[in-house]
């Protein structure tokens, strides 16, 4: 089946449109766009600049993908947006092209759900199976790891990292990295507890959750420090891979500036 393009959509002849793609009324698709099989663009979607979109994505009205980065240092180079497969990108979402400061790619993985009016800024990397709720804003160079969830109205500071299986509560201000497996919220957002709901939904065992809960208690409630907390966890036989991952994330976070491990990229 060939692509189905509405009569009043504007699709550049140079654009690469795969089979079974649907492009609705009043969409604008630029000459450097590549759109994979089965992707559906509702009405009024704009694809501009160098953008690659994978298969079976559903993009809703008013989304703008591939706009120039909102960075005054950008000089018009051939940066890009790369989007994977099976994503839902709702109304008014904006995903900007990268700058030249990292790998030149703003990346969104697969099986993600970006709700209405989210903003994914230049040089962001969003993993797989990530949920970002309405009006949440990712500043430049933010990394969001797999299975993370950001609730509505969250602002994430540039160069921040949101760890895997974490949850950020609504209207939070994220100015520090959010460790994996944690639930964080507040202004500024702080880890409050283990994200038990997500771990159970993703078939983590009760023993893994118990070990992570003990690690959280020692680090964030008892405030023992990483070395002593690791020693107590090891003595208790709870230094499992997930806890090791948590400790490694926090160590890297502390090596950066302002509680953000990726801030070192800014200096580079």
Please tell me about this protein's structure.
With 268 residues, the chain is an alpha/beta fold. It has one domain: UDP N-Acetylglucosamine Acyltransferase, domain 1. It is built from five helices and 28 strands. The strands form three sheets. It has an eleven-stranded mixed beta sheet with strand order 1-4-7-10-13-16-19-22-25-27-28. A hairpin with a 2-residue loop joins strand 27 and strand 28. The longest helix has 16 residues.
Which residues sit in consecutive blocks of at least 5 with pLDDT less than 50?
none
**What is the distance, rounded to the nearest whole angstrom, between the alpha carbons of the first and last residues?**
48 Å
Specify the overall morphology. elongated
- Number of helical segments? 5
Characterize the largest beta sheet: strand count, sense, and whether it forms a barrel: 11 strands, mixed
Instruction: Estimate percent helicity.
Output: 10-25%
Domain tally: 1
Average of per-residue pLDDT values: 97
Count all strands and give the number. 28
Class computed from helices, strands and strand pairing: alpha/beta
The CATH topology corresponds to UDP N-Acetylglucosamine Acyltransferase, domain 1
> Beta fraction of the residues?
25-35%
CATH superfamily: Hexapeptide repeat proteins
What is the level-2 CATH architecture name? 3 Solenoid
Please identify the top-level CATH class: Mainly Beta
> What is the rounded Rg?
20 Å
Order of strands across the main sheet:
1-4-7-10-13-16-19-22-25-27-28
